[in-house]
Amino acid sequence: MGLLHWCTVQPQGSDPLAAVRFSVPVRISSIRIFPAGARPFANAPDIVAETEPQAFYIDVFFNAHPIPQADAKEKPRVPNALVPTLIAYAGRQVEYAVDMGNEYATRLMILRGKFAKLSIAIYGEVVSDTPPQTERRETRPLPSIVPTPLSRAIDPSTSSDPTSLAKKLLALMPDAPPLPLVIRLMFCLKPSNDDWELPDFPYLHADLESLGDEELSVEAIHDLLSRPVRDDVTEEELSAFAAKVAEGISSPKDSNGAYSIARLFSISASQHPGLSRELLRYLDMDSLFTPQNFDEETLLCLTEAASNVDIARRMNTEAFLLTLQQVQESHKTDASTRKAAQRLAARIADWQCFEDSLTNTQGNFSRSWSMLRDIGTEESSMAIWLETMITHDDVVATLAEIPVQKSLPSHSPMYFRNKIIIASHDAFVALVRALIGVASVLAVWAWTDSVGNDACREQVSAVIHIWQGVDGYREIINHLLLLRQLSRRLNWISSDNEIPRQSGILAEKIICELAKDPQAVLNRDLVDTILQLKPKLTFITENELLSLRKIALVSEDGLPAAVEELIFSSDRPLSLRRLRTLRVSLAIVSRELDLPQGEWKTLESFWEEGSTGIVQCLVDVLVVISDDLNKHFVLFPPPPMDQAVAEQLFLTADELLRLITQLTPVYLLTTRAMRASVVAAADIFACTNAADLLFSQTGRAALSARGTHQACIDFVHTLSAADIVAEPGKPGAEVVFRALLQHAGQCGERDPVFHLSHVFTLINHILPEPKATLYDEGEPSYWVTSVLPNVLDELKAFLRLLDPDNKVHVVKRLIRLDDGFLGIGAWLLSEELMNMTRTIETLAARSQKENYKLLLQYRVTLSLQFILGLVGPESSSSKWALDAIASTSSLSAALNENLMALLDGQYISKYLDKLIEVLVTSADSFEPDLKFTISLAALRISGTAAQPHALLGAIAKILVGLAANVIYPESLRVELGPVLSALAVQHEMEAETAQSALSIFQWLLSQQPDTRLTVLCGVSPDSFSALFSILHVSLPAENHDTIATLEATFTLDENDHLPPSSIALPETLELSVHDVDDLLRQEIPTPTTPSTGTKTPDILGVIISPPTAILRSQVETTGLTKTYMNNDFRELRQMPSARQNTSRLPSMHGMCLCSCV
Question: Which of 547, 685, 783, 1113 is buried deepest, with most CB atoms within 10 A?
Answer without folding.
Answer: 685
